């Protein structure tokens, strides 16, 4: 037996036994309120602030007193015009946008766009508010992937909580490469 075969044999012998992946739980229509609650718990655990409201009360929950606000949500006023150069958004205080869907298992939301300014604002703003229809919350990523058409837009990202990293000296840093605060407004 060669040294290579001996090493590969030792690796194979040391492998833990295979584990069956858990079955996904498809959401029944009657489970929607449970999904919303699970989504809120998971998003809060990820560091987001979650607020639930009626569709006509969204503006009440958006802190538009920020000095530089850009909104992609109808009815929420902007103080900043959409720039030709997305780098002009480097000092954006607040960005308000919409998510296509939310995921109950991890509190993430799917944000997709074809616009470079939208993508830049999502990561450059100090604070981000994302509006999500409660009817679009799904149980898990398996179900989310069946509803996402990645060819429909040039950019898409799952966002869950504010930007966080702990890769240097294991010290948690919030806002290193994205917003310091994330608020999710779940609309009935």
In short:
The chain has helices at 3-14, 32-45, 116-124, 141-147; strands at 49-53, 69-71, 94-98, 101-103, 108-113, 127-133, 137-138, 155-159, 164-165, 173-174, 181-187. With 188 residues, the chain is an alpha/beta fold. It starts with a helix and ends with a strand.
- The first-level CATH class is given as Alpha Beta
- Profile the largest sheet: 5 strands, parallel
Strand order of the largest sheet: 1-11-6-3-2
Radius of gyration, CA atoms, in whole angstroms? 20 Å
Q: What is the architecture at the second tier of CATH?
A: 3-Layer(aba) Sandwich
Characterization of this structure:
With 188 residues, this protein is α/β, with parallel strands linked by helices. It has a single domain (25-187), classed as Rossmann fold. The chain is built from 4 helices and 11 strands, in the order ααβββββαββαββββ. The protein has helices at residues 3-14, 32-45, 116-124, 141-147; strands at residues 49-53, 69-71, 94-98, 101-103, 108-113, 127-133, 137-138, 155-159, 164-165, 173-174, 181-187. The strands form 3 sheets. It has a 5-stranded parallel sheet, covered by helices on one side. A hairpin with a 7-residue loop joins β9 (164-165) and β10 (173-174). It is globular. The termini are far apart. The mean pLDDT is 89.
Main traits of this protein?
188 residues, alpha/beta, Rossmann fold, five-stranded parallel sheet, four-stranded mixed sheet, 25% strand
Describe the secondary structure blueprint for this structure.
Layout lengths: L2 H12 L17 H14 L3 E5 L15 E3 L22 E5 L2 E3 L4 E6 L2 H9 L2 E7 L3 E2 L2 H7 L7 E5 L4 E2 L7 E2 L6 E7 L1
Parallel strand pairs: 1-11, 2-3, 3-6, 4-7, 6-11
Antiparallel strand pairs: 4-5, 5-8, 9-10
